[in-house]
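Today's session is about reading a structure prediction critically. Students often jump straight to the picture, but the first step is always the sequence itself: look for stretches that repeat, for charged clusters, for runs of hydrophobic residues. Only then move on to the predicted structure, which in these notes is written as discrete structure tokens rather than atom positions. Here is the chain we will use throughout the hour.
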Amino acid sequence: MGAGAKHKLVFVGRLSTTLVHLRHGATHGVPTCRFGVDRSPITRAIGDTRPLPSMRGCTVAPDVRLRTLAEVIDDLGAGGQTGIIDGTEIRVRRPAAGRKDREKFVSGKNKHNAVKSMVVMGADGRLLFRGPAEPASCADITHTGQLGLVELLASGPAVEILADAGYQGLGAQTGGRVVTPPHRKVKKNALDWYEEMRESQRTAHSSHRIRGEHGIAHLDVPTPAMDET
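Below is the predicted structure for this chain, in token form.
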């Protein structure tokens, strides 16, 4: 204690920086902008302060370290938990003129240049996995295939995964393990009882899946640098 250069942040600043980093998975550049200091004091503050919560009992289970999508699915199945998958888009600057596959970054949904990541949440909204960023033109269901989620669910443990309508069709590919909102089987002149039943099912599904949206709201997704034209 007392050795080395003086801290540029008071203890409360170092503690809040560490808690934000641990809670939201934010990069060190976020508190750097917040406190107006260089990156090295932030890195030092997090390194010095991070052991303090664990010394006082605020620990993460030492035997649980989920590093891959396969490990996440196995952990959900072993605990009988429900997972939530969704895609999140992050807007980016337009790629430079003449760049190959420039149009792939245009989102078909929001009509702007973006990258997309697939995330897996627990039923409580806790982030378990975030896939690599892909151009936003890639459909949600296509992205799951690229990450190998279909194979993991079809051959892995019995686990229920909630998803929105963008993942329609995954239920059939995974033996019913991906649950999406119900299809409208009667499109014309539907009876009142049918509409009420369908709306009730969609509301119940949405009330459980909304926790995934809350989890996405806390993400700090880094985006690739692109030349602006």
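Discussion point for the tutorial: The chain has nine helices and six strands.
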